[in-house]
């Protein structure tokens, strides 16, 4: 089973930046990785995803242009670079991994169904 460990969360002021990391124990049977978040009283939502084989990236409209997803394949590490953060970005952020076949689009990549491995989460708090 794939183990995912997130880090990098913390407190940041509006307009600031933060980088989250997710270390995977293995890439076995994985071709898609993503970041999700869940704020108090809200549903969990997909933030950004990467399909490794195709090199595509997928973003929620709420973070498009502000967040960047990337990976270091050799280090088995997924990143989420967060810039121009707002209080609406406050949430527990989760790393997820899975394998998907066929066409990938933003809708498919940012819902729960492709992912069967989840990290424990790292808290991000944006406040002044």
Compact description:
This protein is mainly beta and about 130 residues long.
3D structure, described in words:
The protein is mainly β and 128 residues long. It is built from one helix and eleven strands. The strands form two sheets. Strands 2, 4, 5, 6, 9, 10 and 11 form a seven-stranded mixed sheet that branches. Strands 1-3-8-7 form a four-stranded antiparallel sheet, with no helix packed on it. The longest helix is centred in the last third of the chain and has 4 residues, at 106-109. The chain is globular, with a radius of gyration of 14 Å. The relative contact order is 0.32.
Summarize this structure as a short list of keywords or feature phrases.
single chain, mainly beta, 7-stranded mixed sheet, 3% helix, 128 residues, 1 helix
